[in-house]
Each structure stands twice: as C-alpha cells, then as structure tokens.
Design a protein that fits this description.
It is built from four helices and four strands; from the N terminus they run H-E-E-E-E-H-H-H. The chain is of the alpha+beta class. It folds into two domains: 85 residues, no CATH class; 56 residues, no CATH class. The strands form two sheets. A two-stranded antiparallel ribbon has the order 1-2. The longest helix has 14 residues. The chain is globular. The chain starts with 18 loop residues before the first helix and ends with a helix. 7% of the residues are buried.
C-alpha cells in the first residue's frame, strides 16, 4: 500500500522498549553517511494480546503504533537528532520474556469457545524487582545524563513516555520535573 520500491531495505528491530529510538538512530546514521535519502520508521505493539489479565504486569500492557519519515534538511529550524543516551543493566536479562507456545485448538472452557491462545509474556520475581528498580530509578538517568550534557533543566522538555504504567510515569516525572 505504501508503493515502496522492491529494493527498499527492511530492517526489523525487536526490542519492545526502544524500537522507535533504535530506528531513529539507524535512520540518522544512514542519512548522515549518505547511504539513504529518506527513512520510514514504523513501530507497533500489541502487548494486550500477550498478557494474562490475572497477572500484575497486565496493568502496564498497552497497544500503540507510530510512524515517522526522516530525511535530510538544510533548514536548521527543522527537528534533528542532536544526541542520545542509553542505560542498561544486563543483570535483569531473561527476567521478562516472551515464551511462545505451539497453538493448539482449545476445547471449550466453562461452556465458551476459546478464541485465543495462552499468554506469552512472562515475568519472574526478579523481573518485577527490575521493573521497579531499573524502570523507575535507573531509566530516568538516561534523560538526566542527556540533559546535563547539554546544560538543560528538566523544565526545558516535555515528557512523552512509551510506558503505560502510571507508577513509572509518576516516578519519571518526579525525577525529571518536565515542563509538561
């Protein structure tokens, strides 16, 4: 439907937490290197199909999608990628994961036909700890570090999080103190 050229190069990214950011950095690098003229970044998530609503983590599940076309511009008033900051803690690797299961026709349960497979998102007790510790306390340091490098206060930015958790959102707001 987009009428992309058959030679359009598709780079699939699979990191639920930073697909758009990774796509933006790849696009910026390819454009600056002169390898491409324009990049279409498309992201989408359908977490609500992959959680059990009987689990704590379901309160943070959300669906969303977005797209952006990134290209070169000589106009300095246009939006541009100036810098980026990443933080990670590999000690939580494997504590939150998707576990695929072979789909099988499910027999009716409680007199109702099952129209879905079992949830795939799993989180261990260590993952729950990481969600609060890393997600709430460490993740905002990426922003504070970036702001400090550019001598900007939190009040100079608007916070638009990817996270649906109001708990994390409130923690980030407290640390960053954004304008909006």
């Amino acid at each position: 439907m987009l009428h992309l050229s058959p030679s359009a190069y598709v780079v699939p990214l699979n990191n639920e937490f930073s697909n758009f950011n990774a796509g933006l950095l790849f696009a910026d690098a390819l454009i600056r290197a002169g390898r491409v003229k324009n990049v279409l970044i498309v992201v989408g998530g359908d977490w609500t199909r992959h959680v059990s609503y009987h689990t704590v983590q379901s309160v943070s599940a959300a669906d969303g999608a977005g797209a952006a076309v990134v290209g070169p511009s000589a106009d300095t008033t246009k939006w541009q990628v100036v810098d980026q900051q990443t933080v990670m803690d590999t000690s939580y690797f494997g504590t939150m994961y998707m576990q695929g299961q072979r789909y099988e026709q499910q027999p009716p349960k409680d007199g109702r036909e099952r129209l879905w497979s079992d949830p795939f998102f799993q989180i261990t007790p260590e993952g729950m700890q990481g969600f609060g510790e890393f997600g709430g306390k460490i993740a905002p340091t990426a922003v504070t570090g970036l702001l400090a490098r550019h001598n900007l206060p939190g009040s100079a930015v608007t916070l638009i999080p990817h996270q649906a958790s109001s708990v994390l959102f409130e923690m980030w707001q407290k640390v960053l103190q954004p304008a909006q």
